[in-house]
Hints:
Elements: E1 2-8, E2 11-16, E3 26-35, H1 38-46, E4 48-49, E5 52-53, E6 58-59, E7 63-71, E8 83-86, E9 89-91, E10 111-113, E11 130-134, E12 138-140, H2 147-150, H3 153-166, E13 173-177, H4 181-192, E14 197-202, H5 205-213, E15 218-221, E16 232-237, H6 242-251, E17 252-260, H7 274-278, E18 282-285, H8 292-301, E19 310-315, H9 319-327, E20 335-339, H10 350-365
Parallel strand pairs: 13-14, 13-16, 14-15, 16-17, 17-18, 19-20
Antiparallel strand pairs: 1-2, 1-6, 3-7, 3-11, 3-20, 4-5, 7-8, 8-12, 9-10
Amino acid sequence: MKAVTVHAAGDLRIDTVPDPVPGPGEALVRLEWGGICGSDIAYWRSGISGTAVLTEPLILGHEVAGTVVAFGDGGSSIPVGTPVTIHPASIAEGSTLAPELAGRDNLHSKVRYFGSAAFTPHTQGGFSTLRVVRVDQLRALPAGVSTRTASVAEPLGVALHAITRAGSLAGKRVLVNGAGPIGALVVAAAVSAGAATVYASDVAASSLEIAGAMGAHVLINRAQGEALPEDVDVAFEASGVPATVGDVLGATARGGIVVQVGNLPTGNVSVGLGALVSREIDYRGTYRFAGEFDRAIELLAGGLNVEPLLTHEFDLDDALAAFETAADRSTGSSKVLLRLSAETGESSGAGTDSAASTASSKSSEEAL
């Protein structure tokens, strides 16, 4: 089978590797769609994502969906041929979780995750034609949810967990700073949670346009000098840019809540935190998701429209062009998808195919 593998910083390859065989309690999934995440781009560009350092070849990808094609011994209540998405996390042997954190499985001390170099050997990801997974990682897709749409379940779960960390948003004024893929999904999640007004802020007009299509009521273009709103009840900092944190705190009402969604750089950074104290703001972190992965699938089945987010599509063989497009905001990209096998069984709109074709040509000319 084929697999999108990073061998070192700047060294992304389409490798041919043996087809996997499912063992007891495992399923073999033909993967059809995969979404490129910022962590995938980080491994490709630098060999590092957060605190995880690449030390061996790694198949990337943790936002994937496909169809079950076989089971190992023991089978499953899910029949062969079922469209699925895959929960990418596994609690590792020897992991611990304090009793007071019961239910917050994302905070286990040791968690393996698809496409992660946090452990050695690394945990291989899902940007491949086939993947063996534990049966309990499968999530059968409800009627009306395609594998293409379901590839967004993982980042939507991240957005929903950020909303959970903020508490009730019903009737509140909400700011989402940073309208990349996760920020745009936070916008959609906030609207779904009943926020009265959702402000989206970014420096890219194309990202703001997508945030608007995902439900943002007010768009703020910081590159054009537009100011953040005053005294929002809850703010989500989704850009991961340290210089913006002080501004977000300053836009938050006294006694309000700021949730840090975007990953800040590892190591020491300069952040303006004065308003954190003077406004007595509750500054909260958020990490991956707990039960929100399943909630994401429910929302997709309920009609949450993520199409505005899905800006580009590439075949697996064109993975380098896909990564270049996803990493370059000037392309207008948001969530870039890989077709992981020829048998997707789905067709997308002509506009999306056209955008992908144009971007592929441009990126190929600029290939490293």
